[in-house]
Amino acid sequence: MKFSYKILLCSIMTMAMALGVGGYFFVNNVFEASIEREVGQAMDENSILQFAFETAALNIPSKYDMLQNSAIKEIGSSLEKGGQGTGRLLRLSDENREILYASEGFVEDTALVSGIGEQTRAYQVIFVDGHYYIQTGAVLHALDRVLYLETMRNVTEVYAERARGFDVYRRLTLVLLVLSSVVLFFFSSWITRPIRLLTQAARKMTAGDYSYRAEQVSHDEMGQLTRDFNHMAGVLEENIHQLEEEVRAREDFIAAFSHELKTPLTAVIGYADMLRSRKLDEEKHFLSANYIYTEGKRLEAMSLRLLDIIVTKRWEIEPQEVPVEVFYSYLRELYAEKSGSDFVFTYEPGSVRAEVDLIKSVLLNLVDNACKASEEGDRVEILGHRQEEGYFFAVKDYGVGIPAGELKKITEAFYMVDKSRSRSHNGAGLGLALCGEILKLHGSSLKIESTPGEGSCFGFWLPTGGCPENTEGGTRAQGTLLPGEA
What we know:
Number of strands: 12
Largest sheet: 5 strands, antiparallel
Shape: rod-shaped
Oligomer: single chain
CATH superfamily of the domain at 3-166: PAS domain
Radius of gyration: 56 Å
Mean pLDDT: 81
């Protein structure tokens, strides 16, 4: 059953119960007030008859010492005739509660008069021959006699009015329930509309439309639920896109890894087959063996890089206070005897908290990439300067540069902007991926500025005091990275 129908049904049932109980108490209250009024009138009538009887008894000539039964009957008959047209019925009993006079139709039951005391009056409601009566009883004193006077007052109309009241109220309740059902139907539809919209949004998202959002139609709790649902949908959509991106990156990684393996292995297999199946002169034999050795070293380097990336992702570092001179001296000594590029070191003294070997690997990869991106004889600058929050390292080249659309991808494993140029330098696109993972361990990330045809600048920041917790690093282009301009 729909939620709106449940609301409608519960509301109708509640209203029916409320109207039923309320109507019962209302009609019954009116009835009880009418009965109470009739009882009062009946008791008053009994008192009037009692006074009239005593007065009539005093006016009877006294022939005997006490009032005779015949006189009592005569007075009773006179009182009954005086009340003709009022529906009055009366009965007179003697001291022994023996009936002396009774109107025609008076009930034969003597239970009421049997319970009347000397100073009490009593009444009861009785049902006789399809009619309701109020029977009253009281003690009266006439001369030396103690008598009992009973009356019966017809109150059938009061009970009939109660029955008509219940009948009218039932019909009125039925009409109200029908009208209220129509109103409650639209009300329940309106109040459950946010739920229907949320259900529609959930179905849309289930079908794959993760950008769909539920319409907010109120500002109450349901509106808050809609806002929370849309926020949840936004987070879910973002997570799904991230998962899709991770799946795509994983597929690209597998494809690139397979390609990077296939190319050198094909050459190695081809030259090895040539060496074992043909007799080659000494020069060709050396070239073939050298090519096999070169491609094997390339595969070895790629395997080691991949292993470094995997290990780095699971590593926990213990940073130490290290002077920056350690890193610059290492690079200066390493590239001092290498020709092909003009290395310029410009840095400020200072110290950082880092794992020495890992940061050396980062700087080595950045300088190596700068050399690969530069032409022979181009300048490569290794820079460093202090900042308020730490120390900034940068490597700048004046080579081919990187298109803006490629900046977000260059830290992915096996991604190469210029694949032919990278392979000519035995590159596999793993250096920057390794740098990104190492910097994540230090709570840092690569910052890149690049202009195609003019060069690139790769930099990163390290703290000078306590190493922060690992944060999700990334590659982004923002601000200038050159010393004195940051």
